Prior knowledge:
CATH architecture of the largest domain: Sandwich
Distance between the termini: 30 Å
Strand order of the largest sheet: 7-6-17-14-9-10
Number of domains: 2
CATH class of the largest domain: Mainly Beta
Helix content: 10-25%
Number of helices: 6
Structural class: alpha+beta
Amino acid sequence: xxxxxxxxxxxxxxxxxxxxxxxxxxxxxxxxxxxxxxxxxxxxxxxxxxxxxxxxxxxxxxxxxxxxxxxxxxxxxxxxxxxxxxxxxxxxxxxxxxxxxxxxxxxxxxxxxxxxxxxxxxxxxxxxxxxxxxxxxxxxxxxxxxxxxxxxxxxxxxxxxxxxxxxxxxxxxxxxxxxxxxxxxxxxxxxxxxxxxxxxxxxxxxxxxxxxxxxxxxxxxxxxxxxxxxxxxxxxxxxxxxxxxxxxxxxxxxxxxxxxxxxxxxxxxxxxxxxxxxxxxxxxxxxxxxx
Length: 291
């Protein structure tokens, strides 16, 4: 906890998810409140180019994100590589990653400026998509990398290596490589274990495996994963639920710990994860996904 040294922020960005009216309404209220404190601000939607530009150029040093877990994933992709902390305000349906509720910001923002908070470091992953000797794309990952089948309802063969050593060939709908943060997302739905957020391990979980390893595997800290796709039909690579990238037979997906961390501002004590785990698990969103 940093309770004695007041925090100063050169410029704060406030970003809401565009499809959440309540989040946008509160974003304007927060902006008005901070302007009254003499704070320099950027008000934007989470997907706006001006926000991306400001973060890329390190023009801000704090992002207040209003939305759900999807909003926090987007914030993590933007801010993690630039080491910019994120304060999540929950306006979505679930909010596993968020810190405070939508109606609580007035009591917490004064604590923020007094330095009464701590920074939680969440490991990110780097994902590289290769075809032969060519690197086609590179991605920052906060939750998970998913390599799996496309629309054709047939499993893919996923030859999997850990630290350069052959592990197994999964015959499955997909293979998930998740962070501890992602262990409460798709990997959990696929039957994987829950990992505490401070761990820097990669979790492997197969989706609907057929005569393959059907238990999640927690890899040692610092391990890397290589997946080689063997298929005669469509296959896909999906990063944190974003639009999928087509894969061809023989394509390689490499996953390893990133040098970057997502930095989440926390006001709760470090034991919050276990205290909130059961209430979160008992809240199953009835419709849609947290944005």
